[in-house]
Every structure is written in C-alpha cells, then in structure tokens.
Amino acid sequence: MGNILEIKDLSKNFKGLKAVDSVSFAVEEGGITGLIGSNGAGKTTVFNMISGVFPPTAGHIIYKNKEITGMKPYHYTSMGIARTFQIMKPLASMSVLDNVASGALYGRKKYKSVKEAKEYAEEILHFTGLYERKDWLPGEMGTPFKKRLELARALATDPDMLLLDEVMAGLNPTETDEKQGKTKMVVDVWKDTDQIVEDLPVERKFPFKSGVNIMFGCNNFCSYCIVPYVRGRERSRRPEEIIKEIQKLAADGVVEIMLLGQNVNSYGKNLDNPMTFAQLLEEVEKIDGIERIRFMTSHPKDLSDELIEVMARSEKICRHLHLPLQSGSSRILKVMNRRYTKEQYLDLAERIKKAVPGISLTTDIIVGFPGETDEDFEETMDVVRRVGFDSAFTFIYSKRTGTPAAAMEDQVPEAIVKERFDRLLKEVQDISAEVCGRDVRTVQEVLVEEVNDHAPGLMTGRLSNNTVVHFPGDASMIGRLVPVYLQESKGFYYMGHIADKENE
Questions:
Q1: Most buried by CB count within 10 Å: which residue of 73, 128, 344, 411?
Q2: Of 501, 477, 361, 495, which is closest to residue 441 (Cα–Cα)?
Q3: What gap in Å lies between CA 407 and CA 405, rounded to an integer?
Q4: CATH of domain 344-435
Q5: What's the whole-model pTM score?
C-alpha cells in the first residue's frame, strides 16, 4: 500500500512564536502512526493543521496524492478525514444519538433524511458501547463515555483516516488502564464462568426510572451477530439479587424499571433452581413503589404462553413489547439461525395482540442480508403490513468480522439494498403514523420525564406503550404518573393536557 497522508515541512507560527517547525512524516494506508512529544510540543497543533482547524504558516499536506493545505474543515470531512479533540466538544443540548447523527449527516455518506442518519448512528453507538445511553445528554455522562462519544461522532462521518488527539487525556489511572486493555486479564479469568459480580453501582439518566440487568451473554449465535463471541454464554442473576436491587431502587424513588438481557425470555434456565422469566416478572410486580415494568429484548423463539398470560393480567407490565423480526422470509431466517419461521412469528404476534389489547409492538429488521432476493424482501414487507408495528428499527446489513454471515457469498449490491431500505422505511413510517394514534381522545396515564426542550411551557412523558406525549405543565410533575387527555395524534406522538372531570 502507498501513503494515505504525507506531511512535508509543516510549520505554524503564532504572532512570532514558532509552535511547529518543519515537521515531516507519512502515514501508510491501512497503518497506524503515533505522534509522540511532551506537553506543549505541538502535537495538537499538527492535528489542527491536518484537519483544517487553522492553516499552516508553511509546508504541505498531501492526502491521497492531492494537495489539501489550507482547506476548510468541512472539506476535509467530505474527503474522509475525521478527528477527535483532546478537549471534548460534544453538542451539549443534543442527545448522544443526535450528536453522532450530526457526524453522519455531515460525513461522506449522503442521507435522504435525519431518520436515516440516525439509523446509521445507532449502528455506531452499538459498536462503541453507547447504545444504552443514546437518549442521554453528554453532560450526564462521565469522561470515559464522553471520550467514546468523540470517537463515535468521528466514526459516523465514515472516514478513511482517523486522527485521535490525546484520546485518554483527562482519564484517571483506572479509566486509562481500561482503555489500554490492561483489564483484559480480568475478562480472561472470568471466561466461561457462571459467576456474576453483584452490588455494582447503577448509573441512571432519570432518578425515577432505571435499567436492571437480569442476565448477561447470549446462546443464540445468530449468524450476523458478534454478541455471543464478545459477551459469552448466557448467565442469569439469582432472582433474590434482582429483587434486592429493585427494592433499593424503589426506596430511592424509582417508579419504572427496565429488565435487561440479550434474550430475557431465556432467563433462569441455568440457575441452580430454575425460574422462568414470567415467574420473575410476577415477583417483581409485588415490589411496592414500582409502578411500571418494562423489559427487552425478547427472542420470538422463546416467548412462552406463560409470559403472554402474565402480561395480560398484570397491572404493572407496560403495554409495549419489542419483538425483533430481522426478516420476514423463512429461508433467510434459517440462514440467520433465528430458529423460527415467518408463520410462527405471525402466529405469535396475533396471540400477543389478542391477549393484550392495544399493545404496542416494535421490532428490528435487517435489509440486505447475504442472499436476500426480491422475493425474500417482499416476505418481510408482508409481515410488516400484517403485524402493523408501531415502529421498527431498520438496519442495512453490515458485516461483523468473525461472524458466519461475514464470509457468506451473494452479498447484496449496495444500490439494491438502498432501494429496498427506502421502501421498507416508508412502509414502516406510513403504518406507524396510522397505528400510533389508536388512543387519541382518551385519558391515559403518563410518566412525566422532563421539560420539553423546544417549548418550556410543555412537559414530555411516555404512555405505558412507550408513545411520547407533550402537554402543558411544570417541572414539579417530573417523575410522577399523571392522567393526560390525548387531544391530538401527531403520528408518532400525542399532544394533550391534564385530564379534568369532563374528560374522565
């Protein structure tokens, strides 16, 4: 390979002070080059010149055999150069997801919509370990996660060359060790064990709701997924430890919990005293102070009739179920190693809807899996139409190194994948806009989450089925469950007001 970058006699003066003096080096395509120097040596200044933050006083910057010296930063981004900053500069008023989506929108790929850019941003968040914090504001995260956000935003631009400026600056020794992989021995020691560390601190975005891990790892080995290889096999926490944690959260003011696992429906199978996920839910429901119970993710092959029955009679389990489809083609599902068919999925969705009227069903769908034909894709579209999902996370298939799918032949051409993705996205949006208004002109209980970012006189909360509601109120409502009259459906959210006796 040749050089992707050549720096020739690069210099920078600031009012007579020479910060960089005739620096020359080259970066080989596909290689890693380190820039070493003491504090104040000018490393960041070199990065700033390469990325267009300010022009050099003298010298040349050659990228892919083209002179780019003195170009504006946005030109560099469009050419495939991205960088992180030593002093982190997230967009403070925007969520983690929106921060990364902004990188995607201003990167090399051209997206037709913000939603499309967010779909790609979510892939980046999965890769960088930030997905569970996608709705957080940067200021709600510690320095290690802000560093990840810097990297995620840079990666979202789809770079060919990535400049990492003091990527571990500001981290304490423990955090630095973790970034350097010095804790990898701990992972190795715990490999293949069924033990779980308890009483770890819980990081919460909201004081009134919290996630609770009930299990770790995965046994499913879907052919496109890297999770079982990096997180190990399924390990369930003891129910008494889960209950104890939730009781502590309830005492601390938490009213809504989210039970988390790669496949919650297989919870408890490896316990000394096996317990089903449905049985665990019944125990959680008994805890005073907890008003809402959510969970994800559910694998369709393991969702039992027992669980459906518990959901149907529960007063606390939310009327929302995320049930990943991935593909509507039985043939593709087999290649994906999903272990259910199109017909089985449709039957399951029908039984759930019958048992829990008004439930919101959401899903994940992959477009362009290796070998996917037009007929396979139409099977997916058929399922989407017949189930009527409230929303769907739609993904363009991307290779994950080390997975069976990455080595499969018949990779679908990008142009075909893009056309299918656009069709699917429109279908999902049209259906979502129709089904999400089912509760209009009714009074529903809303958990108030925050002051609306765009209209300070409005509060924002969520229904049991996870639909967003905006209504007049004040900050004293945050964390409370309040009755709201859903006056108008906007397709993906409601406008409403606090219910009065007339509405009730």
A1: 128
A2: 495
A3: 5
A4: 3.30.750.200
A5: 0.64
